[in-house]
Amino acid sequence: MEVKLGLKENWRQFTLLVIINGFVGGMIGLERTILPQIAEADFGIAAKSAILSFIVVFGISKAITNYYTGAFANRIGRKNLLVIGWLVGLPVPLILIYATNWNWIIAANILLGINQGLTWSSTVVMKIDLVGDRNRGLAMGLNESAGYLAVGIVAFLTGLIASEYGVRPYPFYLGIGFAIVGLLASYFFVKDTIHHVSSETKVSQVKKLKNVFRETTWSNPNLGSITQAGLVNNLNDGMIWGLFPILLASKGFSLDEVGKVVAVYPIIWGLGQLVTGKLADSWVKKSMLFWGMLIQGLTIVAMAFATSFVQFTLLSILLGIGTAVVYPTFLAAIADYTHPEQRANSIGVFRLWRDLGYAIGAILTGLIADFFGVDNSIILIGIITLLSSIVIKARMKYE
Predict the structure, then answer these.
(1) Using an 8 Å Cβ cutoff, are 175 and 27 in contact?
(2) In the 8-state DSSP scheme, what is residue 53?
(3) Domain chopping of the chain, boundaries
(4) Dihedral (C-alpha) 319, 385, 342, 328: value to the nearest 10 degrees?
């Protein structure tokens, strides 16, 4: 079977995978604005660490699934993993609608984490397979843009629907549609990309890693620097997901206003990657990662001191820009530094640690918020993000 690598040569499959990843992102957007409100209003949960428990289980289940998606991508097939991911995601919106206690919410987020790990990881690896060694940054920019634009748009829509009709059940009807369409499109129209990997392997000059897990985790200066930054990025995103709506509500903003501010960050994050993904193909990746993490850190610290709707909106825009600079660059850089046959595995290891950041961030920020207040929790996460930028500056090589 003759295959050609490149974005232009594979634009139909690539576009289909971008659309499917939009539905994947939409599944997360369902919870982004209203789940903390459900915790307090429907279940009477006040402790921040308890409310953030849904993010902890989501992060852990997604992280572990990411690893196994990478490890089994060549053995089971990318398409099969994508389809399995959608099957796991089907019950999630229904559980969120009919949950009678917080344990059901936790169970839904375990399934959501598995769904996200299988579907998002599969689409990432398949897009990189299709484009070859050119336009990887652009490919990841388009992929992550579709996913996080969907997160932001659906977060806005659920806030709007909830303010009109209540937090349950109407906002979650969107998720039922996402899961059904995503499953049918994946099963009937997506083609596996394993043959594209074989084609690229014949011409690749990248040396194989001796130990993919160890080197991607830390021992390789480039891969290790990328991985720690990915973990910290999702650590601060976990904080934004769980604490930001609570912080805004404490400032007296309405649910509709909270939805707008919360939605701005992932929308800018999503749109920005249409630009930053392409830049990652030509600019120095180390510089992009350093500046992106630096912007994030400074912005998060400033959030603890903001008071007005305009200030929070501007800071959400800045945070979205900082995240957009690093997010497609992470995956493009991992792909650059790994052999085609080890790429899926290395991306799986990176995504394991990156998404454990959700769990670590939720536990850390929840505990600190309960004992020392939300503002101090936010400041600490901002400082950790600044330290991550310094690690990139000191350890990663210019290549």
Answers:
(1) yes
(2) H
(3) 11-196+205-395
(4) 10
Residues 117/355, Cβ–Cβ less than 8 Å: yes
Residue 23 tokens read as 């539905």
Instruction: Report the candidate in 134, 385, 389 with the shortest Cα–Cα distance to residue 277.
Output: 134
Kindly report the pTM of this predicted structure. Answer: 0.91
Would you say 122 and 5 are in contact if contact means Cβ atoms under 8 Å apart? no
C-beta of residue 186 within 8 angstroms of C-beta of residue 19: no
What CATH code is assigned to 11-196+205-395? Answer: 1.20.1250.20
At 287, list the tokens. Answer: 């510089």
What sign does the dihedral 368-105-234-244 (CA atoms) show?
negative
The pLDDT tens digits of the residues spanning 127-173 come to 999 998 888 999 999 998 999 899 989 999 999 999 999 989 999 99
Q: How high is the pLDDT of residue 1?
A: 59
What are the residues whose beta carbons fall under 8 Å from the beta carbon of 270, sequence distance 6 or more? Answer: 25, 144, 145, 146, 147, 148, 149, 150, 151, 152, 324
Could you tell me if 278 and 141 are in contact, meaning their C-beta atoms sit under 8 angstroms apart? yes
Is residue 10 predicted with pLDDT exceeding 90?
yes
Tokens encoding 155: 């977060």
